[in-house]
Prior knowledge:
- The protein has helices at 12-15, 19-26, 109-118, 120-146, 149-164, 173-180, 184-196, 212-218, 222-237; strands spanning 30-34, 38-41, 49-55, 58-63, 69-75, 95-98, 102-108, 168-170, 200-203, 206-209.
- It has 2 domains: 12-144 and 224-237, Jelly Rolls (Sandwich); 148-219, Orthogonal Bundle (Arc Repressor Mutant, subunit A), CATH 1.10.10.
- Strands 2-6-4-5 form a 4-stranded antiparallel sheet.
- It is of the alpha+beta class.
- Helix 4 (120-146) packs antiparallel against helix 9 (222-237), helix 5 packs across helix 8 (212-218) and helix 6 (173-180) packs across helix 7.
Amino acid sequence: xxxxxxxxxxNSILVALPNAxxxxxxxxxxxxxxxxxxxxxxxxxxxxxxxxxxxGALSLLSSTEAGTSVEVGVVGTEGxxxxxxxxxxxxxxxxVTSQLTADVLRLSATALLEVLRRSPRLHExxxxxxxxxxxxxxxxxxxxxxxxxxERFCRWLLTARDCSDENSFPLTQESIAQTLGVPRTSxxxxxxxxxxLNLISYSRGKVTILDRKRLSKAACECYDVITxxxxxxxxxxxxxxxxx
Length: 244
């Protein structure tokens, strides 16, 4: 039977570990809370810790040489930030931030690699999750290329709502513009339109989703595709040696 680690009952990878393998992690996991807009890693930083979100999510951003950034993935309570380590790469590929408040369990890179040598189940889970992340980044690339800024904005709001489990959450126009890779003026215009349609309210850096059903219709299909992919991983994680 899976063993639910203290503080880790909301992370799909950790709760899927059997008792014996979970015990190796118990004393090494450290709960940490990241406030909104915290930069955790820059591109090229050595990976000293990996992070298992238990509430909220971490954002993966890529940037151009000119400094323009765009979100290429989100690590929620299904996964782990620091996945390059399992490929033998001790260097972060993305800028990792907490767009919203995020509760995570932190594990040193050294400890993770040691546990992986003893835990075939964790090794399997992280490789399954790597596949899930590849699917997500592929879908996000399609989204950025073919869908409107408004559709992508709505998708991101729905994702933020799912990750925070709240209809209201802090969000600055600057941060969402950075996430979507668009000018802040575009975000201002779209947020105003969504407010006029009574889909959201926005005041003093706080967004409230007023009509989730209609917001879902305004979002692109990528929200459903990525959500289902994450849910597929969660289901697979519950079953030992589950195939994709």
